[in-house]
Amino acid sequence: MQFKDVQIGQTLPGLDVPITVALITGGAIATRDYFPGHHDKDAANALGSAHIFMNILTTNGLVQRFIEQWSGPDLRFKTFKIKLGAPNYPGDVMKLSGAVSALDVESRCVEITLKGQNSMGSHVSGTVSVVLP
Protein backbone atom coordinates (compact mmCIF):
# COMPACT_ATOMS: atom_id res chain seq x y z
CA MET A 1 0.00 0.00 0.00
CA GLN A 2 1.27 3.46 -0.90
CA PHE A 3 0.34 6.60 1.02
CA LYS A 4 -0.98 8.19 -2.19
CA ASP A 5 -3.59 5.41 -2.46
CA VAL A 6 -5.13 6.01 0.99
CA GLN A 7 -8.16 8.19 1.77
CA ILE A 8 -9.85 9.21 5.02
CA GLY A 9 -12.82 6.93 5.62
CA GLN A 10 -11.32 4.07 3.65
CA THR A 11 -12.22 0.78 5.35
CA LEU A 12 -9.80 -2.04 5.87
CA PRO A 13 -10.77 -5.58 4.88
CA GLY A 14 -12.15 -7.36 7.95
CA LEU A 15 -10.30 -10.17 9.64
CA ASP A 16 -12.10 -12.96 11.50
CA VAL A 17 -9.85 -14.68 14.03
CA PRO A 18 -11.08 -17.99 15.46
CA ILE A 19 -10.11 -18.05 19.14
CA THR A 20 -8.65 -21.43 20.08
CA VAL A 21 -6.87 -22.89 23.08
CA ALA A 22 -3.77 -23.25 20.88
CA LEU A 23 -3.86 -19.57 19.88
CA ILE A 24 -4.24 -18.39 23.47
CA THR A 25 -1.64 -20.68 25.02
CA GLY A 26 0.77 -20.34 22.09
CA GLY A 27 0.54 -16.54 22.23
CA ALA A 28 1.13 -16.54 25.97
CA ILE A 29 4.14 -18.85 25.70
CA ALA A 30 5.60 -16.91 22.76
CA THR A 31 5.42 -13.68 24.78
CA ARG A 32 6.77 -15.36 27.94
CA ASP A 33 3.54 -14.70 29.79
CA TYR A 34 3.23 -17.67 32.13
CA PHE A 35 0.24 -16.35 34.07
CA PRO A 36 -1.94 -19.44 34.73
CA GLY A 37 -5.09 -17.75 33.42
CA HIS A 38 -3.64 -18.00 29.90
CA HIS A 39 -2.97 -21.76 29.87
CA ASP A 40 -4.59 -23.53 32.84
CA LYS A 41 -8.39 -23.75 32.71
CA ASP A 42 -8.70 -24.77 36.38
CA ALA A 43 -6.59 -21.80 37.46
CA ALA A 44 -8.62 -19.49 35.21
CA ASN A 45 -11.85 -20.84 36.72
CA ALA A 46 -10.46 -20.27 40.23
CA LEU A 47 -9.92 -16.62 39.21
CA GLY A 48 -13.60 -16.38 38.23
CA SER A 49 -13.00 -16.72 34.50
CA ALA A 50 -15.11 -19.02 32.31
CA HIS A 51 -12.01 -20.38 30.52
CA ILE A 52 -8.43 -19.44 29.76
CA PHE A 53 -8.23 -15.98 28.17
CA MET A 54 -6.03 -14.20 25.66
CA ASN A 55 -3.22 -11.95 26.88
CA ILE A 56 -2.76 -8.39 25.62
CA LEU A 57 0.46 -9.20 23.75
CA THR A 58 -1.34 -11.77 21.61
CA THR A 59 -4.04 -9.19 20.93
CA ASN A 60 -1.29 -6.71 19.94
CA GLY A 61 0.08 -9.25 17.48
CA LEU A 62 -3.34 -9.87 15.97
CA VAL A 63 -3.92 -6.12 15.55
CA GLN A 64 -0.52 -5.83 13.88
CA ARG A 65 -1.45 -8.72 11.55
CA PHE A 66 -4.75 -6.98 10.72
CA ILE A 67 -3.00 -3.71 9.81
CA GLU A 68 -0.22 -5.39 7.82
CA GLN A 69 -2.74 -7.53 5.94
CA TRP A 70 -4.13 -4.25 4.57
CA SER A 71 -0.93 -2.24 4.15
CA GLY A 72 1.63 -4.85 3.20
CA PRO A 73 5.03 -5.23 4.88
CA ASP A 74 6.56 -1.85 3.92
CA LEU A 75 4.92 0.15 6.70
CA ARG A 76 6.53 1.48 9.87
CA PHE A 77 4.43 1.47 13.03
CA LYS A 78 4.44 4.87 14.71
CA THR A 79 1.88 4.61 17.54
CA PHE A 80 -0.12 1.73 18.94
CA LYS A 81 -2.90 2.81 21.33
CA ILE A 82 -5.32 0.04 22.18
CA LYS A 83 -7.42 -0.96 25.15
CA LEU A 84 -8.94 -4.27 26.07
CA GLY A 85 -12.55 -4.95 26.95
CA ALA A 86 -14.32 -8.33 26.97
CA PRO A 87 -11.99 -11.34 27.18
CA ASN A 88 -11.28 -13.60 24.21
CA TYR A 89 -12.22 -17.17 25.18
CA PRO A 90 -11.70 -20.37 23.17
CA GLY A 91 -14.58 -21.21 20.85
CA ASP A 92 -15.35 -17.59 20.00
CA VAL A 93 -14.39 -15.49 16.96
CA MET A 94 -12.89 -12.01 17.11
CA LYS A 95 -13.92 -9.85 14.16
CA LEU A 96 -11.41 -7.07 13.50
CA SER A 97 -12.52 -4.00 11.54
CA GLY A 98 -11.15 -0.55 10.99
CA ALA A 99 -11.01 2.58 8.88
CA VAL A 100 -8.57 5.35 8.06
CA SER A 101 -9.36 8.21 10.43
CA ALA A 102 -6.55 10.72 9.72
CA LEU A 103 -3.79 11.43 7.23
CA ASP A 104 -0.64 13.56 7.51
CA VAL A 105 0.68 14.25 4.02
CA GLU A 106 4.00 15.67 5.19
CA SER A 107 5.01 12.59 7.21
CA ARG A 108 2.97 10.05 5.16
CA CYS A 109 1.37 8.99 8.45
CA VAL A 110 -1.95 7.13 8.38
CA GLU A 111 -4.11 6.78 11.51
CA ILE A 112 -6.44 3.80 11.65
CA THR A 113 -9.27 3.50 14.15
CA LEU A 114 -10.06 -0.14 14.84
CA LYS A 115 -12.09 -2.53 16.91
CA GLY A 116 -12.20 -6.25 17.54
CA GLN A 117 -15.59 -7.66 18.52
CA ASN A 118 -16.42 -11.09 19.91
CA SER A 119 -19.71 -12.57 21.10
CA MET A 120 -19.41 -10.70 24.43
CA GLY A 121 -18.78 -7.28 22.87
CA SER A 122 -15.63 -5.25 22.31
CA HIS A 123 -12.41 -7.14 22.99
CA VAL A 124 -10.08 -4.44 21.65
CA SER A 125 -10.45 -0.87 20.42
CA GLY A 126 -8.11 1.97 19.65
CA THR A 127 -5.94 3.65 17.05
CA VAL A 128 -2.77 2.68 15.26
CA SER A 129 -0.63 5.10 13.28
CA VAL A 130 1.66 3.88 10.52
CA VAL A 131 3.99 5.51 8.03
CA LEU A 132 3.56 4.29 4.47
CA PRO A 133 5.95 4.62 1.53
Structure characterization notes:
- The chain has 133 residues and is α+β, with helices and mostly antiparallel strands.
- Strands 1-3-4-5-2 form a 5-stranded antiparallel sheet, covered by helices on one side.
- The protein has helices at residues 21-30, 41-46, 56-71, and strands at residues 15-18, 76-84, 93-104, 109-118, 121-131.
- The protein is 24% helix and 35% strand.
- The chain has a single domain (3-19, 55-131), classed as Hotdog Thioesterase (Thiol Ester Dehydrase, Chain A).
- A hairpin with a 4-residue loop joins strand 3 and strand 4 (109-118).
Give a short synopsis of this structure:
This protein is α+β, with helices and mostly antiparallel strands.
